[in-house]
Amino acid sequence: MDKGTPSFDAVIVGAGFSGMYMLKSLRDKLGLKVKVYEAGDTVGGTWYWNRYPGARCDSDSYIYCYTFDKQLLQEWEWSERYPEQDEILRYLEHVAKRHDLKRDIQFNTRVTGGEYDEASNLWQVHTDKGETVTARFLIPAVGTLSYANIPQYKGLEKFRGKWYHTSNFPKEGVDFTAKRVAVVGTGATAVQAIPEIAQQAKQLVVFQRTANYCVPARNGKVDPELVKARKADYDNIVKRIRESFFGQEHYFIPKSALEVSREERERELDKRWDTGGFAFWLANYQDMFFNKEANEVIADYLKRKIRATVKDPKVAEKLIPKGYYYGTKRQPLDTNYFETFNKDNVLLVDAKADGPIEEITEKGIRAGGKEYEVDVIVFATGFDAMTGPLKALNLKGRGGRTLDKEWAEGPHTYLGISVVGFPNLFAITGPQSPSVLSNMPVSIEQHVDWVTDCIDNMRKTGKTIIEATRQAQDQWVAHVNEVVNMTLMTSANSWYMSANIAGKPRAFLPYLGPEGVGGYRKKCDEVAAKGYEGFALS
Ligand SMILES: Cc1cc2nc3c(=O)[nH]c(=O)nc-3n(C[C@H](O)[C@H](O)[C@H](O)COP(=O)(O)OP(=O)(O)OC[C@H]3O[C@@H](n4cnc5c(N)ncnc54)[C@H](O)[C@@H]3O)c2cc1C
Fold it and tell me: Is the pTM of this model over 0.85?
């Protein structure tokens, strides 16, 4: 039964792209009393925290933005194809100001726990400032890549130099001039940071666990005529990305990579290579994610590019990806990444060829029995993706159940939005939704709009409790796994597969639907149209 008056209609955790729009939507569309808690000292989320050299988005800027504010789409001018972190942060600050969001956001405040109280049907939410508030709805907008993975190397506390994780760089930046620097990791972040750090550092040692397939970003100013044309066509662009597979204007070639001649295939691959960005990954032959042979001919193209760029064949060999299929890990976009390994001040230490990192010493890093002395260590080791930030909320649902226990074998959600036993809790871009496999603003806006409509519907129909049913959740989990099991994605030790975190149960984290973002949106809309099918409402 519904007792008690909550402090807020809704509490939102996080003030990145998701939390900001969720606040705008619930407050300004529905007139709800909303409070946002944010650990950082301003808005921006990812773009507040990730200040490492070279940090920028990999989605094209004309679609890496909100679409709910049509006037802003016309007014805002991005300086480049992929703007840098500070520019995206400036954009989000502008949005916050334009929509007067900050008055309902409490910064420098981390949510440390929450319990669903069955008697009052309210969430009690605790913060690190010692506050407890209550809310009818709890909306974690905590991000998917926001819980840093700091590897537990032996000896880190002994290191006499400075160390940083890329997602928590000092605001004033780090001056690498005349420094000996180590970068640990070679994922998408490292691929952005390494060429920049190499330009400053006296010496750079890169510690690689897994070599990565990189494609050129081809950043730069966008032709003003193209910008104009896109602005004139935004309504159609928005429609297209919402209905697309990946929330981007990329479409598979509707052919097998194996049915065409080598010449034709090379022409198509060259086109994508020259275009730069995600085209090579997401607009390639349609069987690339399914067929091993098709995948191999495409991977071979990228391997040839590495060999043609890296002058020392031994170094090139270490940089050639091995043991997994192309495209099954997050695609890094590079600007002079492989070229950087031709520099005299750059050394590559590969876990397989040279030996893995054994420990951090007072003076540096010991790997393969050899000590590499450095002044600064940069951990570009990524995140406990998707489930990490949600589990860190320490939530207790019905009967005190925890996400740790519910997700002991990987995430179990309904549509990536809701979890059985956690009523009135809506995750934005949660596990088992397209999320990190999409251009995220598209998925964020879809979830926020869906949740807003759902809450509005509940109010209009006099309902106060919504909770996924066990049957709907089980079916969704089975569907998520069935679809991805048809692809090569599950064969990689990727963070998509939870494989980057020791002890994390091996499970595919996002949803790779048969029709991607567009099909998923249709499914969510159908669920709503059928009176929130798969949810129990009371
Ligand atoms: C380096 C990098 C590059 C990226 N590039 C792209 C790209 O090109 N294209 C793309 O689509 N996506 C990209 N992403 C993904 C990116 O995270 C999303 O695009 C988007 O910014 C997510 O917004 P969000 O609001 O959901 O989450 P976030 O931006 O992660 O914001 C979550 C916020 O929640 C706060 N928070 C978390 N837990 C708590 C708590 N317990 N209490 C209080 N506050 C809390 C955090 O401090 C954070 O500010 C990138 C991510 C990274 C890390």
Answer: yes
